[in-house]
């Protein structure tokens, strides 16, 4: 679920309960936009508004112990909303996404501790909004999801996206090639190539 879907409403943030087992998690160093405190006995990692569970999972850890997250999900107390916040800390992560589709929870991907903290803060701020904002909006097919992602780049349509993906196994390979070859392998207009380059070089801020 893209962070942009979670727009801050006009609501005072509540306090997030954090499992004591999360002591030492670097995400907490960035969780400064909401109040939080440790609590013993939580079956989840982060409890928001008493009815939202957020389990935090390092993809690298999951690759070595895939049984861990299954046990955690099975031992959760009943929550209205279950979220799996996955920290992508390894390459070729797409192949693992199929595994998470089978879980009865919303899956969020983050690529840094600061982004994970932003998700937690945004979930807290949006806790009482309609669940439509976090419902699945993409195809379960990985190829289709890549097409949908690339088609979000300004001036790039799905036909362009399919041409860009031809012969590529993952998005990282595609973007590495684009950076080195300036997309010469694909017949795109100059404006579309410039749009891709601008998208790849855009700067991200730490603002919510």
From TrEMBL:
User: What are the protein's UniProt keywords?
Assistant: DNA damage, DNA repair, DNA-binding, Endonuclease, Hydrolase, Nuclease, Nucleus
Primary location class: nucleus
User: Keyword Zinc, does the record have it?
Assistant: no
Instruction: State whether keyword DNA-binding applies.
Output: yes
Q: Which domain of life is it from?
A: Eukaryota
Enumerate the GO terms in the molecular function aspect: damaged DNA binding; endonuclease activity; single-stranded DNA binding
What are the record's GO terms for cellular component?
ERCC4-ERCC1 complex; nucleotide-excision repair factor 1 complex
Where in or outside the cell is it found? Nucleus
User: Which residues are in the ERCC1-like central domain?
Assistant: 15-123
The record's listing under Pfam families reads: Rad10 (PF03834)
| A GO biological process held by the record | mitotic recombination
Gene3D superfamilies recorded: 3.40.50.10130, 5' to 3' exonuclease, C-terminal subdomain
In terms of InterPro entries, this protein maps to:
ERCC1-like_central_dom, ERCC1/RAD10/SWI10, Restrct_endonuc-II-like
Q: Which PANTHER family match?
A: DNA EXCISION REPAIR PROTEIN ERCC-1 (PTHR12749:SF0), EXCISION REPAIR CROSS-COMPLEMENTING 1 ERCC1 (PTHR12749)
Concerning its family, UniProt says:
Belongs to the ERCC1/RAD10/SWI10 family.
UniProt name for this protein? Structure-specific endonuclease ERCC1-XPF, ERCC1 component
């Amino acid at each position: 679920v893209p962070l942009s879907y979670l727009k801050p409403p006009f609501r005072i943030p509540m306090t997030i309960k954090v499992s004591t087992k999360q002591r030492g998690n670097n995400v907490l160093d960035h969780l400064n936009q909401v109040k939080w405190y440790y609590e013993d006995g939580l079956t989840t990692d982060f409890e928001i508004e008493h009815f939202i569970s957020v389990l935090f999972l390092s993809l690298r850890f999951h690759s070595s112990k895939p049984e861990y997250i299954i046990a955690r999900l099975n031992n959760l107390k009943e929550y209205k909303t279950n979220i799996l916040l996955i920290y992508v800390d390894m390459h070729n992560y797409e192949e693992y996404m199929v595994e998470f589709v089978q879980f009865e929870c919303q899956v969020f991907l983050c690529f840094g501790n600061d982004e994970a903290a932003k998700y937690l803060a945004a979930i807290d701020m949006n806790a009482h909004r309609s669940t439509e904002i976090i419902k699945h909006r993409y195809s379960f097919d990985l190829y289709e999801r890549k097409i949908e992602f690339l088609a979000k780049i300004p001036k790039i349509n799905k036909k362009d996206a399919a041409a860009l993906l031809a012969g590529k196994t993952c998005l990282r390979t595609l973007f590495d090639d684009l950076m080195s070859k300036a997309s010469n392998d694909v017949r795109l207009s100059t404006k579309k190539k410039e749009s891709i380059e601008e998208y790849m070089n855009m700067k991200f801020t730490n603002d919510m």
